[in-house]
Specification:
By secondary structure, this protein is an alpha/beta fold. 34% of the residues lie in helices and 10% in strands. The chain contains nine helices and six strands. A six-stranded parallel beta sheet has the order 2-1-5-3-6-4, sandwiched between helices. Strand 1, helix 2 and strand 2 form a beta-alpha-beta unit. The longest helix has 15 residues. The chain is globular, with a radius of gyration of 23 Å. The protein starts with a helix and ends in an 11-residue tail after the last helix.
Length: 262
């Protein structure tokens, strides 16, 4: 038999071998994570039901991240209390979102020059639609600048947000929070209810504990690494400005600093 015939016969044999699909790990129907790393057991026994709504403007790349925190909001809150819109520019001819952004009771959580501390908002004038941009810092900034509908909204910020519990992901500065933590802090203020801090943070703690137990390491903020000469990259002007603001805040605690979700 010629070499060509042998090769043809070999290919025919391979073609007749049944292709079994790869075995997939069982996936939780609620959080859509493999059951082995599911954090649903840490969710509140009943979804929390705030008077207002959380509205996430999510960068498309964020959906692909396996360790994102937005799903903890969508399943930890009652149905209809966490709305997610995906894109790089909004409202993108979406009538429902256009209506939300134009609502006088909608608040954009973004540290612009026009934003005010969220504590200054009167909860009795709600319920509010709290708009958050979900993505990395550069993605959030790009979404804001390309979405002119956001610029005229009432804008609020978190002045004192503490330290993030999302210790398996690097934050730009010490006061930066994940999307989940930002929403929790804002809800706690607007709803005058500490249950959001007590219950909605638990899935994040479970996620971080599992990752640390399986080889992940704790991440210091870029601010910490830069101050200790451990950050290997050049820093941009925005981060430089944030670090200077942080220094000013330490000298004068009455001077507000910026905080934004990531």
């Amino acid at each position: 038999m010629s070499e060509l015939a042998l090769e043809s016969s070999a290919w025919e044999d391979l073609a007749n071998i049944p292709a079994d699909p790869p075995r997939m790990r069982p996936v939780c129907t609620k959080c859509c994570r493999p059951t082995q790393v599911c954090w649903c057991s840490a969710l509140p026994s009943e979804p929390l039901n705030p008077g207002g709504r959380i509205v996430l403007l999510q960068h498309p790349a964020e959906e692909k991240r396996s360790l994102r925190t937005a799903p903890m909001l969508s399943v930890g809150l009652a149905p209809g209390k966490c709305l997610i819109y995906k894109g790089k520019k909004f409202p993108r001819h979406d009538m429902e979102l256009e209506t939300i952004l134009a609502d006088k009771r909608s608040l954009l959580l973004y540290p612009s020059a026009n934003s005010v501390p969220i504590e200054q908002i009167d909860p009795s004038e709600g319920p509010y639609n709290l708009i958050l941009i979900d993505g990395t810092w550069p993605q959030a900034k790009a979404i804001y600048h390309s979405s002119t509908a956001l610029h005229g909204m009432r804008q609020v910020k978190l002045v004192s947000s503490g330290t993030s519990s999302y210790i398996i992901r690097t934050q730009p500065t010490e006061g930066c929070l994940s999307t989940l933590e930002t929403a929790i802090e804002a809800l706690s203020v607007l709803e005058r209810d500490d249950r959001y801090r007590e219950h909605l943070l638990q899935p994040l703690h479970v996620l971080c504990q599992f990752q640390l137990a399986n080889g992940a390491v704790t991440h210091q903020s870029k601010e910490f690494l830069i101050r200790h000469n451990q950050y290997p990259k050049l820093i941009g002007r925005r981060l430089n400005r944030l670090l200077k603001q942080a220094d000013n805040f330490k000298d004068d605690p009455t001077e507000p600093t910026e905080s934004k979700s990531s």
